[in-house]
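yo

u said u wanted the structure for the complex thing, so here. seqs first:
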Amino acid sequence: MFKKFTKEDVHTRTNVKSSVQRALKSKFVSQFEKLESVIDEIIPKKSAVELLKCEDKIQLYIVDDEVVFFQQFDELIPSIKIVQKYPDAFPSVKVDRGAIKFVLSGANIMCPGLTSPGAGLPDAPGYEKEKIVAIYAEGKEHALAIGKLIMSTEDIKSINKGIGIELVHYLGDGLWNFQAD
Amino acid sequence: MTEVIQPKEVLYCGVCSFPPEYCEFGASFKKCKLWLDENDQELFNKLYSDEALATATSSLSIEKQEKIEKDLQKKQAKEEAKQERELQKKLQSKVILKRIERTKRKHAIAISGLEVFEIDMKKLAKTFASKFATGCSVTKNAEKKEEIIVQGDVGDAIEVYITGLLKEKGLLDIKVEQIEEKKKKKPTTPAIPPQ
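structre next:
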């Protein structure tokens, strides 16, 4: 989504009303329940959240010049910096070492990269499809990408073919390098 | 449901902005390695000791590993060459301040050659406008390149300002040159003799 993303793709920049901000926060928490205790740290009550409307109906939400989360359709997706800061709050999967290179150049993640010995998927029942997951890598501590499951994790294990996760946001993409000032 | 999650401090590489463990996949691995060596010895030892390298590569077959390594090296070499080229280009180019005569004793200054240095033209124009209290705008010149036009004879002040600006960016030997453009005299059209 953000393979090519620059300042020119931002159309408007506005402040978000505090009532909308409250709604956003509760929505974000309802999506990622473990964030409940820290949501006030991510978005402090008095802070001004800014909304950047961009190309392709992408909307970025910014606090203190840092992208906190974004949305294209309905669901909110956290930025990698937030995921790396609160790693336990988000569902996660792990890819093997061979896949890192491709993920970092923006490729969708194929099932074999998730099922090989170095990789890791959650135990059954796992995650439903369409879920937003943080992607970790074999031997690495931090997340390297955010993706959306195209198959449920159980399907990935059983079918083991084709695209398993659609990559949304990764280290070094346009959003990662985006500076909001 | 009320377990408190502590925020995790993540160190980011000063060269490529990734967390250091991913530097090896970036385009400037060598520089990143140097940076980490200087800034966080502990992590450096953890990531680049022989032991760590051995465990990291153990799960892949050797041929595959070699191939990936080769690809990465190629990419890195390419990126380095690119950066080198860009630096050369920056060093060679110069900024030109053209003094344009508008009417008698009134001048405008056109600044061109700035686009190489990654300077936000619009912002700079705004700064000039408030600094010199004049009109200042960004326009496209004859070669379809952007230039800044400042109203008023402020060439010397601008020269000082731009050299300062480039110095801040670490570019010391950039030429800032002032030239003058005389207003062309209108070619006198021969009067058409009345018939």
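Chain B has six helices and five strands. Chain B has a mean pLDDT of 77.
cya
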